[in-house]
Amino acid sequence: MTPLLKVTGLTRMYGSRLGCRDVTFDLWPGEVMGIVGESGSGKTTLLNCLSARLEPTAGRVEYDTREAGMQDIYAMGEARRRMLTRTDWGIVHQNPRDGLRLAVSAGANVGERLMAVGARHYGAIRSQALQWLDMVEIDADRIDDLPLTFSGGMLQRLQIARNLVTHPRLVFMDEPTGGLDVSVQARLLDLLRRLVTDLGLAAIVVTHDLAVARLLAHRLMVMRRGEVVETGLTDQVLDDPHHPYTQLLVSSVLTP
Amino acid sequence: MTAMIRVENLTKTYVLHTQGGVEIPVFAGVSLTAAAGQCLGLHGPSGSGKSTLLRCLYGNCKPDAGAIRVRHDGTEVDVASADPREVLAVRASTMGYVSQFLRAIPRVPALDVVAEPLRALGVPLEIARERAATLLERLRIPERLWRLAPATFSGGEQQRVNIARGFAAHTPVLLLDEPTASLDARNRAVVVELITEAKAGGAALVGVFHDDEVRAAVCDRVHTMRDRE
């Protein structure tokens, strides 16, 4: 077995300011990695570099493509990179409005990704869209409604359906439960947990919420000031943190 | 006698960086072996590191030195130095753990909490739920609770759900942290039965048992932990 994603010495500078420095790791098929750390620690910069949206200053991101094996994602052509992000990858934004098209119906938002990979039969696209709305617990009679009429939690579930309909092997998530009520969060987390397990997805989840990380991630990477300070099995990092910064993070969590 | 776990020279010290870097030595140079078909009891005063040792065996705690060799899939994996995904593979098919407290997941019903380790091994949903139901029944969790998430259960009920979950997958290694701490005599007897059956099935068990009677009933050997030095 080979890793799905291979990251080597990844660094991103913003002029003289550091985004993230010298990040190296392998992600294996079906593995969910959480990136935790406070605001400004470089989590989102790293996620953007990994997901082909921000070119790194140094280092490599290689992905095990279906057709040609390991490929440097920034060395491949723009067209292939776009195809990869539309089919084999999914990107779940913190704000679902960034990942959805608000002017078209819920069904069209899901169907559009299918059409991008060549689906043309209207009936088949609609039935797949219905199936995915059901998987993310959105009632079938909302399929023709505009996303603007959806609640925050429903929008996030719709964004997830839109991403998963093409059966990606790797999904990037940026604070997927951020900005949602806790009760809505719990429902979404349970859904994400089930989907990731049932579909065998690999995922990289950025979150500042350690409880979310514990529920979703197999392993964690703790970032501080652009650098990775601790890595390991999720429950081990949270229950027996070694780095002073991780200990501070874990001990700062309020329990109700 | 097949050794399922071989612990060599394990040392663990907690360093509390947020509290002025205080060092708390837990244990040093611990070596022990857990054999198939036997139950090894960890014994010692409160604070002697019994739970920490169990957590190290499960990969939940990272020792400073030493090795924890667990027989898995025909080879030995050193849990103390293995990759996260190797430890998860060992947990999925080889090593179960009954912690002192159940960590409830929102919205997941008790029946599925118990069935989950079986599902992770690829057992079909219906069969996994059937086996989970059998265990919950033996541990006297009323059937009306099976469809509810255990977050609102009593302490004793949560512990029994946790025990059912630990015994569901029949893993060759099982770690038990005070499994009978808040149970009444009838439920204690069920846990003793489950342990005895697991041993007969060839499992290696390592446990902390506060209750002298339970310890005497299930343990073949006892490893005594010294107080912090």
Summarize the structure.
The complex is a heterodimer of chains A (256) and B (229). Chain A is an alpha/beta fold and 256 residues long.
Model description:
The complex is a heterodimer of chains A (about 260) and B (about 230). Chain A is an alpha/beta fold and about 260 residues long. Chain A has a domain at about 1-90 and about 195-255: P-loop containing nucleotide triphosphate hydrolases (Rossmann fold, 3-Layer(aba) Sandwich), CATH 3.40.50.300. Chain A is about 40% helix and about 25% strand. Chain A has helices at about 45-50, 80-85, 95-100, 105-115, 120-135, 150-165, 180-200, 210-215, 235-240, 245-250; strands spanning about 5-15, 15-25, 30-35, 60-65, 70, 90, 170-175, 200-205, 220-225, 225-235. In chain A, the strands form 2 sheets. In chain A, strands 6-7-8-3-9-10 form a 6-stranded mixed β-sheet, sandwiched between helices. Chain A has a 4-stranded antiparallel β-sheet with strand order 2-1-4-5, with helices on one face. In chain A, β9 (about 220-225) and β10 form a beta hairpin. The N and C termini of chain A lie far apart (about 45 Å). The model of chain A has no long low-confidence stretch (mean pLDDT about 95). Chain B is of the alpha/beta class and about 230 residues long. Chain B has a domain at about 105-165. In chain B, a hairpin with a 5-residue loop joins β1 (about 5-15) and β2. In chain B, α3 (about 110-120) packs across α4, α3 (about 110-120) packs parallel to α5 (about 155-170) and α4 (about 125-140) packs across α5 (about 155-170). The longest helix of chain B is centred in the last third of the chain and has 16 residues, at about 185-200. The model of chain B has no long low-confidence stretch (mean pLDDT about 95). The interface between A and B is medium-sized, with 24 and 19 residues.
